[in-house]
């Protein structure tokens, strides 16, 4: 049974500005495993897309739960990828749920949708 659906969209320019204006922004959003992957990315554009996708995904998850970010931390939510490159999501306190996630990018935006099912 579906318990929640969340979607979020973010401008890549907003993420780029946040990285430039706040040296701790990446550390605040990404878990250690996410950050390790982020640091291996070669281009600034790809790093911005990656971070924007993770930001949108975590916001979308929080919306699916109905709590929003605040009760959950960005670091409670981890988005990695499977062997085929599809995103996977793990959330502290939500191991009894099935969580579906989709992330997409354009030249200007990143968008993510999350479905929470028990």
From TrEMBL:
Transmembrane parts of this sequence: none
Top-level taxon: Bacteria
4'-phosphopantetheinyl transferase domain segment(s): 4-112
Cofactor or coenzyme needed: Mg(2+)
SUPFAM superfamilies linked to this entry: 4'-phosphopantetheinyl transferase (SSF56214)
Major enzyme class: transferase
Binding site residues for Mg(2+): 8, 59
Keywords of the record: Cytoplasm, Fatty acid biosynthesis, Fatty acid metabolism, Lipid biosynthesis, Lipid metabolism, Magnesium, Metal-binding, Transferase
Catalysis: reaction(s): apo-[ACP] + CoA = holo-[ACP] + adenosine 3',5'-bisphosphate + H(+)
Entry EC number(s): 2.7.8.7
Molecular function, one GO term: holo-[acyl-carrier-protein] synthase activity
Pfam families tied to this protein: ACPS
Purpose of the protein: Transfers the 4'-phosphopantetheine moiety from coenzyme A to a Ser of acyl-carrier-protein.
The protein, known as: Holo-[acyl-carrier-protein] synthase
């Amino acid at each position: 049974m579906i318990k929640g659906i969340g979607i979020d969209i973010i401008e890549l320019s907003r993420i780029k500005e946040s990285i430039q204006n706040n040296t701790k922004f990446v550390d605040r959003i990404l878990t250690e495993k996410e950050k390790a992957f982020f640091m291996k990315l070669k281009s600034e554009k790809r790093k911005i897309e990656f971070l924007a996708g993770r930001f949108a995904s975590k916001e979308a998850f929080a919306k699916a739960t109905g709590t929003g970010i605040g009760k959950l931390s960005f670091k409670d939510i981890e988005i990695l990828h499977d062997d085929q490159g599809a995103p996977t999501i793990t959330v502290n306190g939500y191991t009894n749920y099935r969580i579906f996630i989709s992330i997409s990018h354009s030249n200007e935006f990143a968008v993510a949708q999350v479905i929470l099912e028990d």
